[in-house]
Amino acid sequence: MKTINKIGLGLAILAVCAVSIHAVQEAPSDENLEKKLVNDYNIYALPLPEHIDFAGEEVPLHDPDIRERLDRELLVNVYWQSNGLLLFKRANRYFPEIEPLLKKYGLPDDFKYLAVAESGLEYTSSPVGASGIWHFMKATGLEYGLEINDYVDERYNLEKATMVAAEYLKKSKARFGTWTMAAASYNAGVGGMSKQIGRQKQTSYYDLLLNSETSRYVFRILALKEIMTNPQKYGFNFREKDLYTNIPTYKVKVNTSVDDWAEWVKPYGINYKILKIHNPWLRDTYLKNASGKEYFIEIPEEGYYTKI
């Protein structure tokens, strides 16, 4: 019994010594730690594309200022990896809706990246009150005929908001001569761009000295276009099943008041939350509609949510 205890004690001492030696071996020195940091995590400068355009209008990359501004936005957006992946996921849901609307209303396809730059393809409201995927201010929405009140806010209606964005941008293009300047005016306003053109005697976005936000705005759109067109080039890897998908819906016409949307949706097998996901332009739990205006409510196909 004593012999066994001695053997056991000896093995225990050897085990402790082995652990201690292993710990000493694994403890990194300053030099090893530096090597490990460098080998395990690297950040690379990004090669700029040889050429890039917005809506067919070439970006003057021979200008060092232009190259630096594009480089900045590429770096910011490539190395914000979590946000980048979310943009790819949402784009798979919303681009198939936005692309035909842009074509229908006469805008170049590249303007879908303006929507990405504005809202990240979310039905959000900015700190200053710009709302929806296209981020209209209330005054602009009303000016272009959108209904905005306590019950309905059509800035959150993707088709109607895209139509208004197209009208605004086409008017800006007619005024300033290029789609690039039209995009810049979407951020700075038509009046703001006109003022700077008058002050600086220049008509190209790339030749104007603008406020910080507008100065970066078009370059952010360009960077998003470059990254989202070439995901693997910039280290974004995902499978088709990782992306968000568009849920098929059908339309139900409503031309009366609705006392309670939560009750109204019950026959369609969904709840109020699902109704709002597909109709974010409905802004309250009920609808006043004394005029009998026609609204079209998007309802997900029967049983879709139970299938997933």
From TrEMBL:
<keyword id="KW-0732">Signal</keyword>
<dbReference type="Pfam" id="PF01464">
    <property type="entry name" value="SLT"/>
</dbReference>
<protein>
    <submittedName>
        <fullName>Lytic transglycosylase domain-containing protein</fullName>
    </submittedName>
</protein>
<feature type="domain" description="Transglycosylase SLT">
    <location>
        <begin position="103"/>
        <end position="206"/>
    </location>
</feature>
<comment type="similarity">
    <text>Belongs to the transglycosylase Slt family.</text>
</comment>
<dbReference type="InterPro" id="IPR023346">
    <property type="entry name" value="Lysozyme-like_dom_sf"/>
</dbReference>
<feature type="signal peptide">
    <location>
        <begin position="1"/>
        <end position="23"/>
    </location>
</feature>
<dbReference type="InterPro" id="IPR008258">
    <property type="entry name" value="Transglycosylase_SLT_dom_1"/>
</dbReference>
